[in-house]
Each structure stands twice: as structure tokens, then as C-alpha cells.
Amino acid sequence: MNVWMSPHAPTNMEQGLESALAMARAASPREVRSVLGADMSTLFGLYRVDCWVMTADQRALVLDGENELFLCDDFRHPYAHALRQRRGMRLNDVARQPRLDHPGFQRQVRAVPHNTDLYLWTLAPDAAQAPLGVLACWGSSESIDVLIESDAARVLVDLGAFHWQQQKRSEDARRREHTLRSSLVTLREDERRRTAAHGLGEQVIGQSEAMVALRQQIVRAAETSMSVLLEGETGTGKDVIARALHSCSPRADKPFVAINCAAIPESLLESELFGHVKGAFSGASENRQGLIKQADGGTLFLDEIGDMPLDLQAKLLRVLESGHFRPLGATEEQQSSFRVIAATHQPLREKINDGLFRADLFYRLGQFPLRVPALAARKGDIELLARTFVRRFCEQERRPVVGLSSAALSALDGRTFPGNVRELKNVIEYALAMTPPGQDIDVTALEAREDAQGVEEGQDAETALALEAVTDLRQAARQFEASVIRARLARFDGNRAMTAESLNLPKRTLAHKCQQFRIGEE
Fold this sequence. Notes:
The chain is of the alpha/beta class and 522 residues long. The chain is built from 20 helices and 15 strands. Helix 17 (443-466) runs antiparallel to helix 18 (473-491). Strand 1 and strand 2 form a beta hairpin.
């Protein structure tokens, strides 16, 4: 007997139509399955109805919201048999099916009353298509009899399979569209980053693999608000990298504030960073805003961070963690939101082991570490760098732009540059100064600089020998020390960091001695 022709036919008919309409209005395959299962159970008085879903690889069946999984080639459960037969399949009194001993299926059997029958429908829009899943109807023998004889049940199941398939296609189409849109967004982002990295070529010069990769990393770092730690030898251009990173970041229109931690006496460094109020110390005649406050909204560049005193490192860490600080002598805290970029040529990990640098500050600064390659690691960039320095110098001096002879380029390529890009720039500018306007740089102009350095070093050596005749040992030592420092500064083109390193001196000590001997004031 058709259940819709039972004494409750008007109600069942209405429910059947409502079920069909609800599946047509469903917004997802899962909603179709939920309506089909619930209405089949209600209309035919079943204990439960489960709608098992075929996985995308067609290897297993799963149930919405459950962790249970049945493999399609495991015939210890009836769902595998139903899929193979692809037609309705009835099991009378499921508890008496000794061959169906799958643990998961046995748990289902124990969850329903004794003497329960099971009817399985393989759900597929048509015979030519892969099955969508299996509809498992658990009920009494009488309910299953009614279900099997009901044309309405078959109509509902067919409608369910149809709407499930339609929603699945719509869902797949939406997923493909989303994937396509995501791919396009990714492509646009990649293209934007490539364009941005290419745009940095005038600032961060070089076409070597190392420099191309560095520009890409700069763009990536600029997209974040993470702290950046630049590591590399002296003269590699870490300050240039810092400015380039700021220029392509969202903070580009805000201040870029730089400070060299090694160039400022320890007693003044804290005041430079944090500022002070009037009367905070002797000579503080007025309130002074520190660099941390000046960098609010922008970027604070801490060059030579390895030379920052330990007690000041702790105060800096607190600012980086909280954004709050207190100027010297002030009673109230101030706030500043900035992005910090730090740079060093020193091995900070070794300094940590030696107790000279805080490990917590190192990890806070190194959220996005960048290694700046030495010029020796990218010698292929020497010609491009040299020509760029020639052009910039000529534009600055309002001279006609000239070139470099092949001999000069060969000489540059064969030369070592312990001072890296800074030394190369000084060599080019000296050669230009020694070359008449309008003429290309020749190798003789490069050699003239080496000859000049040799003469200076020879003069200093003669001076040192002459000091042996001095009877005042203390005065002689002072003069000799000053002579050595002058010679070494000349050798490194006035670069105090390299001079201090070559003499195994702290940079603050060298700065003090230069002031003491009036070196640089001549």
C-alpha cells in the first residue's frame, strides 16, 4: 500500500510535497541530505535514516558530522554490497547477519531495537554517473515493507539524489570560482611584489641572484609590521636597505628616524632615544623630544645595535614590547607606535654568549632577519654599481656623465674591497676627481688613489721612526698613536668603524682618541 494513500493521506501528502519543496530550496548538498533523511524518517515511521556520503576519491563513505568512515571495498559492512549492486537492498533482522561484523556497523546495530530491518538505497542521479552515497533506512519489518512498496518513497529518494547532485555541482562551481579568484589574487600579489622589488633597483643596486632575492625579501618584510634585523659586513649598505624597506612600507609617508648607536657617547644615547625634560640633568635647559617619539607612526633605524649598552638594551626591549616609555626626568609615560629596523656587522650570538647582548632583545629585533651580502659575494654587480656611482657623482657635480674604460673595469673586478660597496664608491669618486671632465675613467686614475695611500702610509712610517729620538716617552707614545690612527683612517677612507675593527679598538674608544688627538679637525 502506498503510504500516501493511508488514512493519514492528506497529512502525508502535504508532508511529501513540503519535503520536495524543502529539498528544492536547499542551499547545499548537506541541507538536501538533512531534509531527505528527516522527512523519510517521519513519513514512513522509521527508527532512523542515515545519508552516507561518498568521499571525493570514491573510496569511502562518511556521515555528516560524524567521524565514522566505511571503506567501499570492505565487505564486512552492507554499504559496500549496496554500492556494488547499485539497487535497493534489504537486510531482515540486522542483528542476525553474522558476516557483517564490521565494528562500526555493529555499533549501529546495537543502537537500534532488536528485530530491526535495514533497507539501503544507492543514491545516484542516473545509472551512468558515480553514486553520491547510500541512504540507510532503519525500521521495523512493517515500516520497511511500506517503504519498499511506496512509489512516493522512490520519488522522494530520486528527488533527493537530483537536488543533491544539483547542489553538488553548484558547490563545485563555487569552489572552482573561489580557487580561480584566489589564484588571480595570488598572481596579482606576486606581480605587485615583483614590480615593487624591481622598483627598488635604483636604491638597492645589483642584478646578482643574491640582490634579486634580497629585494624580494625587502618587499615581503615591508608588508608586515615585524621588527627587521639587518646583518652584514661594514660598508654593505645596511642603511640603504633600511631606507628602501621604509619607502615601500605602509609607513612610507611617516618619519624615518635613524641613529648610529656607536657614534653617540653612552652617556648621551639614552637621552637621544628617550628624550628628556628640562632640568633632568646638567645642561638640560629645555624639554627635548627623543627619537623614539619622533618616529611615532614611522620607522626607527638603530644602526650598529651591537654597541648599545646592556642597561639601555633592557629599556629598549620594554618600549618594543609595550610601546610605552618615559623621557629622562619625566613623571609620566608617553606612547609611540613605530617599526624598528636594527643593523649590525657584529656577531650578536657571540656577544650573547659573552654576556654583552641580551638574548631576549636579539629575538625581538630579529623577527624578520635579513642578511646583506658582501661585495665579494656579488662581484658581478661591481660594474653596475660603478656606473651608478659615476652617474650620481657627475649629476651632483654638474659634470657630463662619463664611462669607465675596459682596463678600469678589469682593475675593479680584480680588486678586493674589504670596505665593500662604500669602499667602491669612494674609489670611483676619487677617480672621477682625478679625471678631467668629459673623459672616461682609466686605470691610471684608480692607481693614483693607491699611490696616494702608499705615500701617506710611507710618511706615517717615517714619522713613527723619527719618534724614536724623542726623549719624552709619554709624548712620543701619544704622537705615535695619533700617527697610526691617521694612517689607518686614510687607508679606510675615513671609515671609523673599519679603522676601529682593524686596530681591535671599541668604536667609542677610537672616537675618544680622535677627539683627544684632534684627528679630523686638521
